């Protein structure tokens, strides 16, 4: 939300008097806090952003509104009560609103570190960050602008955090017929488990497509009717000793009947799955699987139209590296 306070961080002046001011012992009306501004901002942002999520700075404010939280001091001892403990009180808010923020390493208990790379390389701090991500169902963390992503010692630590936070859709048991015919129904099914820490908060469409087996171009596609990807929830109640959610993530089973409603040449094709950004209906979200083609689609195997394919499996050396794909985009229509 921003707007009010130093750096737009809802302090100096504050939104409420729930917490003491930063730079003096007691609040002074219209100097250290602004009476009535909480309702003014809450009402205005609720009215203005009907289809987008809004985050606010502190979990103990805006309690009459369903906002997410942007806490900028993850893993800092001095902010445990004000940040972590207050966010825990929100209960299941994370299921519908994003929880995120920053690891700000230039103050408090993290001041001893000279860089973000040092913060996440420290075993005790890394464990605390991961525990808080899992406990609070963290969706994203910033504060890493100056990190050296070419540092080979930093990469595995960054990768671990990235795999821990947000959604992580593990796709398995993708089933489809090996031979389909135009204008005849066929069934596909697959399972998804969210091994991350948060849901994805919008119901973006899931697409099944047939690709030219040589050029990888889409020759036919359909979006599925049943998946509600915002309901693909992670586990809950993190056990940091065992490093597991004691309430495991559920398996989401998707099964639909499709019809090839386009005349295609008899031959071999590749069947793929992807999640599309509604702005332009282009692939955007990725599943946590190795099967990947540049552009955002996941090839699952060969399929025949009016014939059986010669082989079904796609060799792993035919996949592209998801991490190197810089082609993803959206279009405003």
Q: What general form does the structure show?
A: elongated
Helix share, percent? 10-25%
Gyration radius (Cα, Å) is 24 Å
Order of helices and strands: HEEHEHHEHEEEEEEEEEEE
Q: Give me the secondary-structure category.
A: alpha/beta
Which residues sit in consecutive blocks of at least 5 with pLDDT less than 50? Answer: none
* Amino-to-carboxy terminus distance: 27 Å
Oligomer: single chain
Q: What number of domains? A: 2
Mean pLDDT, nearest integer?
A: 94
The total count of helices amounts to 5
How much of the polypeptide forms β-strand, as a percent range? Answer: 25-35%
**Main β-sheet description:** 6 strands, mixed
According to DSSP, the number of beta strands is 15
Could you explain how this protein is built, in words?
A hairpin with a 4-residue loop joins strand 13 (267-277) and strand 14 (282-285). The protein contains 5 helices and 15 strands. The protein folds into 2 domains: 6-164; 169-324, Sandwich (Immunoglobulin-like), CATH 2.60.40.10. It is elongated and about 80 Å long. With 333 residues, it is of the alpha/beta class.
């Amino acid at each position: 939300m921003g707007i009010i306070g130093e750096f737009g961080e809802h302090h100096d002046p504050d939104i409420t008097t729930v917490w003491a001011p930063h730079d003096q012992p007691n609040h002074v009306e219209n100097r250290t806090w602004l009476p009535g501004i909480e309702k003014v901002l809450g009402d205005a942002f609720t009215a203005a952003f009907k289809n987008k999520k809004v985050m606010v700075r502190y979990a103990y404010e805006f309690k009459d509104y369903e906002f997410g939280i942007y806490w900028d001091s993850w893993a800092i001892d001095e902010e445990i009560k004000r940040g972590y403990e207050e966010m825990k009180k929100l209960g299941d808010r994370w299921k519908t609103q994003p929880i995120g923020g920053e690891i700000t390493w230039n103050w408090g208990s993290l001041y001893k570190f000279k860089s973000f790379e040092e913060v996440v390389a420290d075993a005790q701090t890394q464990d605390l960050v991961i525990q808080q991500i899992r406990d609070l169902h963290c969706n994203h963390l910033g504060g890493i602008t100056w990190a050296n992503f070419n540092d080979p010692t930093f990469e595995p630590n960054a990768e671990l955090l990235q795999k821990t936070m947000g959604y992580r859709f593990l796709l398995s048991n993708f089933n489809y017929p090996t031979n389909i015919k135009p204008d005849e129904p066929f069934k596909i099914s697959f399972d998804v488990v969210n091994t991350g820490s948060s849901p994805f908060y919008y119901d973006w469409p899931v697409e099944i497509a047939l690709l030219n087996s040589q050029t990888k171009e889409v020759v036919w596609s359909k979006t599925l009717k049943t998946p509600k990807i915002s309901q693909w929830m992670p586990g809950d109640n993190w056990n940091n000793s065992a490093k597991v959610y004691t309430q495991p993530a559920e398996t989401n089973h998707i099964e639909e009947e499709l019809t090839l409603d386009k005349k295609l040449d008899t031959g071999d094709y590749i069947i793929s799955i992807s999640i599309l950004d509604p702005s332009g209906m282009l692939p955007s979200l990725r599943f946590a699987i190795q099967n990947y083609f540049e552009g955002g689609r996941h090839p699952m195997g060969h399929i025949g139209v009016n014939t059986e394919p010669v082989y079904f499996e796609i060799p792993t050396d035919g996949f592209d590296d998801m991490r190197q794909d810089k082609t993803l985009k959206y279009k405003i229509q």
